User: Fold this.
Amino acid sequence: MISKAKVKFIKSLQLKKYRKDEQCFTVEGAKGIVELLNSDFEVIWVAGTANFLRENEALLRRNRIEVVETTERELSGASSFQTNNSAIAIAKLKPISPPVLNKEFVLVLDDIRDPGNLGTIIRTADWYGIKHIIASLETADLYNPKVISATMGSFCRMNIYYTQLTNYLVGTDWPVYGASLVGRSIYDTNFGGEGFIVIGNESQGISGAVHSLITNHITIPRIGQAESLNASIAAAIILDNVLRLKK
Assistant:
């Protein structure tokens, strides 16, 4: 049974302020929690149905965490999403540190506000083997429950570093590719073996300050009449071409 105090604590973690204060976040659903338990995150508490706890008994015992058996009804009352019918977990936030980059491609997110978009971008980046994402301070919080849910566990394998983008990018000797409605077609671009790929805000695109640091403006050629592409879709198309042609 999940206590009333624990439900209150879980609900508080839906807000960034309390996640920061408590240095904790929640993960909901079997897929995300199994990924979490197999990661290097510190998991401190799990509540699950009898079936979930039985199926993951060895994994839960290995992690030596507090485990509570609960019902689907209790989960619905504690969770952010009505569709959670298996488990909910509380884990510790990781310390924030700048990534150590090798010869690779890195996504740069300039003011991606929609949690669903951010989660989908993280999941897509994981699919294409991207290890690092540099995010503006205005970008949605990684630990927002909607972001975590949309990643389908991929947040466990991604290093996301929030920083002031212009300070981070200025002076780099790597190419900085900026997704835009105008620029060189991604199909005619030789991306080489390393670089930063900047995806801008869902409605405003890349901000002026970051725009000034773009060395290569790229675009996905438009054939139809749609005004623009969803940020997560654009990221997927660009990554597919960048890594397919990587030399």
The chain has two domains: 4-92, 105-244. The longest helix spans residues 231-244. The mean pLDDT is 93.
